[in-house]
Write a structure and sequence with these properties.
Rossmann fold, eight-stranded mixed sheet, 8 helices, globular
Length: about 240
């Protein structure tokens, strides 16, 4: 399939020039970026794309969530392995990805959940993720019942994927002009969810947008994109506010 020949296109977009508000911490065997509001018992795990946990764009998202009242933590789900770089050879991407399976992150998730509960006093938990992280969100929302809400942003879909066994409400954000996630796959996802899913869900396609638009596009690049970038971010926060 077309979208699997180069399955993570997050080189599209901008690397933000952004000074972060939080701090880096050690969480058992991995590092994580944490940003905390003054006082809350709500927390969100923010899962990075292929460019890893130190990408300023993803930390910008974490800080935005913290500004909306959540402890936001962006862990290194690659567990010390090198993130992808825009200058890397795309012909080697598939081999690189095999050692970073978005569905094999339970050890890291366990450590982060323990940290949030014991060190941050978190009692209400959610998760958001971008691209590679969007796939990871789907996995976690079928695995961890304590995650009360999930937002999967442009996580790649395979025809064989069945994510109907979601444990709690999950919101799926897609871009109409995403060259790597064909709309027929989004339709198939909706059909499977409608037939089998037992919890609240929403699938939303944002007109005219391309892969990565919520966290890989600066708002000031194109006036036509700005409303959809802002809408995607607002929708993400509203979903969390509703269910966490």
């Amino acid at each position: 399939m077309a979208n699997e020949s180069r399955p993570c296109p997050c080189d599209i977009g901008d690397r933000f020039d952004y000074e972060c508000c939080g701090q880096e911490v050690q969480v058992e065997h991995i590092k994580a970026y944490v940003c905390k509001p003054a006082s809350t018992d709500k927390a969100v795990i923010v899962i990075h794309d292929i460019f890893g946990w130190q990408l300023p764009n993803t930390r910008y998202m974490a800080d935005m969530l913290a500004a909306n009242g959540y402890v936001a933590i962006c862990p290194d789900f690659f567990a010390g392995k090198e993130p992808w770089k825009p200058s890397d050879d795309w012909s080697k991407f598939d081999d690189w990805l095999k050692t970073r399976d978005a569905r094999k992150i339970n050890k890291e998730a366990d450590a982060v959940l323990k940290y949030l509960k014991e060190q941050c006093g978190a009692k209400k938990l959610g998760v958001v993720g971008f691209c590679w992280g969007g796939v990871a969100v789907r996995h976690l929302m079928m695995t961890y019942p304590e995650l009360k809400a999930g937002v999967s942003l442009y996580g790649l879909i395979k025809d064989s994927d069945d994510i109907s066994n979601l444990l709690n409400p999950t919101f799926f954000i897609f871009a109409e002009k995403d060259d790597f996630i064909p709309l027929h796959q989004v339709t198939l996802l909706e059909q499977k969810l409608k037939k089998n899913c037992k919890v609240d869900y929403e699938v939303k396609i944002y007109p005219g947008q391309t892969h990565g638009f919520v966290h890989r596009k600066r708002e000031d690049i194109n006036p036509q994109d700005k409303p959809y970038i802002e809408e995607g971010r607002k929708d993400m926060i509203n979903w969390l506010n509703k269910y966490v």
